[in-house]
Amino acid sequence: MGGTTDPVDDEALLARLRAAPVLAGPLPPFDPDRAPDTPGPLFADWLDRALDDGVPEPGVVTLSTAGADGTPGARVLMLRGIDTADCAFRFASDSRSPKGSDLAANPQAALTWYWPAHGRQIRMAGPVDVLGEEPTRQDFLHRRDTSRAAGFTGVMSAPMSGPDEYERAHRSARRLVADEPGRVPATHTLYRLRAHEAEFWQADPARFHLRLRYRRAGHGWNRTLLWP
Ligand SMILES: Cc1cc2nc3c(=O)[nH]c(=O)nc-3n(C[C@H](O)[C@H](O)[C@H](O)COP(=O)(O)O)c2cc1C
């Protein structure tokens, strides 16, 4: 590893960034007055529309966590399940990873989606719990062989010496998956974030952006528009 790189012209890079289009549209309409009383169906409606319109990878979402000392961490992962009625979202990871340690110490998190083609951001925040053995098994066993093999290689986010080490580990993991197709790594963990707060942000090319926030209140939800 290592090597030299040419110095970067930060100003030129910033100028190019400023010239790049943002929230260009055409963007879908959003009428908060007609939004449902609970956020789950609105999430489902926006996701449906994203899938219909071919928004790239709408299931990719940023998960933000903070450990016991408050240090934040964020990374993208795949949405692995939706409970629209309860506004809850599933994701999976290795419990030994930094996010796993964060969630063990502080089981609160935020999920953030951004779908540029629609100018839409969705934020969900709330407590996170760990789902039981059977849903976790199902989540793992529904994956492709290569993805399951990856689940048996190394400790996620631990230092690795190089691609050779990974290739060797993956080769033996592929054999293990072929020999024992029902096996699930002990640290494969399916998490559920149950939103206590949900926010839908709709861009407008004329910059009349709309923000609609839902907060759980008793058995229902409060809805509020926020200044953009
Ligand atoms: C498109 C995409 C999808 C990903 N999906 C997952 C996932 O479902 N679960 C996961 O643990 N990591 C996933 N990752 C990797 C994470 O972004 C991250 O690198 C890894 O989970 C380690 O994070 P941590 O060190 O903060 O725990 C994905 C990465 C990308 C770019």
Mean pLDDT: 95
Strand count, sense and closure of the main sheet? 10 strands, antiparallel
Count of discrete alpha- or pi-helical segments spanning 4 or more residues: 6
- What fraction of the residues are assigned to beta strands by DSSP? 25-35%
Number of strands: 10
CATH architecture classification of the domain at 27-132 and 186-226: Roll
> Secondary-structure element sequence?
HHEEEEHEEHHHEEEE
Task: Detail the topology: elements first, then pairings.
Blueprint: H1 10-19, H2 39-52, E1 60-66, E2 72-78, E3 81-83, E4 88-94, H3 98-105, E5 108-115, E6 120-130, H4 133-141, H5 145-150, H6 163-179, E7 188-194, E8 197-202, E9 210-217, E10 220-226
The structure holds flavin mononucleotide (FMN).
The site of flavin mononucleotide has 13 residues, from strand 2, strand 4 and helix 3.
Characterization of this structure:
Helices cover 28% and strands 31% of the residues. The chain is α+β, with helices and mostly antiparallel strands and 228 residues long. The protein has a domain of 147 residues: Pnp Oxidase, Chain A (Roll). Strands 1, 2, 3, 4, 5, 6, 7, 8, 9 and 10 form a ten-stranded antiparallel β-sheet that branches. β8 and β9 form a beta hairpin. It is globular and about 55 Å long. Flavin mononucleotide binds next to β2, β4 and α3.
What labels would you give this structure?
ten-stranded antiparallel β-sheet; alpha+beta; 6 helices; Pnp Oxidase, Chain A; globular; 228 residues; binds flavin mononucleotide
In short:
This protein is an alpha+beta fold. Helix content is 28%, strand content 31%.
